[in-house]
Write a structure and sequence with these properties.
The chain has 370 residues and is of the alpha/beta class. The chain has 2 domains: 126 residues, Aspartate Aminotransferase, domain 1; 221 residues, Type I PLP-dependent aspartate aminotransferase-like (Major domain) (Aspartate Aminotransferase, domain 2). Helix content is 38%, strand content 14%. The protein is built from 14 helices and 14 strands. It has an 8-stranded mixed β-sheet with strand order 2-9-8-7-6-3-4-5, sandwiched between helices. β7, α9 and β8 form a beta-alpha-beta unit.
Length: 370
């Protein structure tokens, strides 16, 4: 059976997209230059040019895993596995934790890899849809009904890509209670947590629920997607072992330069988050004003956290048609909801980059010409 297509990546990798010069749909904070990151190192910090280019430790060094574990309460290095970004982790989970005839529940709309590898394996994927009229919160009562049948795991993304929905404390408490009652593991994609740094803080779900796997990394909130460093954190060492068994048959390493730079970025986490949070805060202010001014064309909900929002298009045609016109005729990328298998009525707007104001201005010019 062929694996399903990846419409979002197809969009960003298309010939037309390569010719665009502005992106209004990035899913990450403002990328850092290597020189900018290295400049954060103090004079006594080990030198980048002195690192060994021999084989790095499998699944991340003990030192890096211990450094990551400090963000998870009582966790230690043994509770952490480092991966090549979260695509690597998500794909491996889809291979390791469910098989033909099994059933999983996935919050939708979703990033394709939350569901596609498991579906390719013959796993039945049950959608747990976000509800636009409810601030994009999925229905916990519906999840309770779905969990009456045996389920290998549930996938949740928080803050959510692409809608920006962020569960509050009551939602999280009720979710954990439902999962604990049914003894169902949770795969919590938390790659967007941390922005803005004024957002209310919650412990990673792996700290609250013994059968949760929290996924995070450097790509989104820190603006370091080029390093390809992600990780899994969990109390359930059996789940982690199952993933490692599959991972060992593929690439089980991150590069030594990436590991060095990841450790530096985590040391300077507060400084980097402050930098990126200021950008996001400014862009949210711009977005709120823009979409209020164009309220006849968009239904806009300000995200509580993260860098993504999912406004509804109210204008002529549909979001996919507008997206393709913007890309071909105006060199502006604005991914429509069709790229998330979620109809043609919404766009994903990315709030993390300094180019946001310029990209929004180009969209404004397009709307003025309609």
């Amino acid at each position: 059976m062929a694996i399903e297509p990846f419409p979002l990546k197809d969009f960003f990798m298309s010939t037309e997209a390569a010719q665009a010069d502005l992106n209004l749909s990035p899913s990450y904070a403002e990328p850092m230059a290597l020189s900018e990151l290295l400049a954060l190192a103090g004079p006594d910090h080990p030198k980048f040019e002195d690192i060994s280019l021999g084989y790095p430790p499998i699944h991340g060094s003990a030192a890096l895993r211990a450094q990551i574990a400090t963000h998870y309460g009582s966790f230690d290095a043994g509770n952490i596995m480092v991966t090549n970004g979260l695509d690597d982790a998500l794909g491996t989970i889809g291979l390791a934790l469910a098989g033909p005839g099994d059933r999983i529940i996935v919050q939708t709309p979703c990033y394709q890899t939350h569901r596609s590898v498991a579906a390719w394996r013959g796993v039945k994927v049950i959608e747990w849809p976000c509800i636009e009229a409810n601030g994009w919160a999925p229905d916990l009562g519906y999840l309770e009904d779905l969990l009456k049948e045996p389920t290998r795991f549930v996938v949740l993304c928080t803050p959510h890509n692409p809608t920006g929905f962020t569960p509050d404390e009551d939602f999280r408490r009720r979710l954990v209670s439902l999962l604990r009652t049914s003894d169902t593991p949770l795969i919590a994609d938390e790659i967007y947590t941390g922005l803005p740094d004024t957002a209310e803080r919650y412990a990673p779900l792996a700290c609250e629920y013994e059968n949760a796997v929290s996924l995070h990394g450097l790509s989104k909130t820190l603006g370091l997607p080029g390093l390809r460093v992600g990780w899994m954190a969990t109390q359930n060492l059996s789940l982690l072992s199952d993933v490692k068994e599959i991972k060992d048959h593929f690439n089980s390493f991150i590069t030594a330069p990436s590991e060095f730079l990841a450790a530096l970025a985590l040391e300077m986490l507060s400084e980097i988050l402050a930098r990126n949070s200021a950008i996001v805060a400014d862009n949210i202010t711009r977005a709120d004003a823009f979409f209020q001014r164009h309220g006849n064309l968009f239904d806009w909900t300000t995200p509580a956290a993260g860098v993504n929002a999912f406004p509804r298009w109210l204008g002529p045609g549909n979001a996919e048609t507008v997206s393709m016109q913007l890309m071909k005729d105006h060199k502006l990328l604005l991914a429509s909801s069709s790229r998330f298998n979620w109809g043609t009525e919404h766009f994903r707007v990315g709030l993390g980059c300094r180019s946001f104001a310029q990209a929004l201005g180009r969209l404004d010019e397009f709307l003025d010409q309609m």
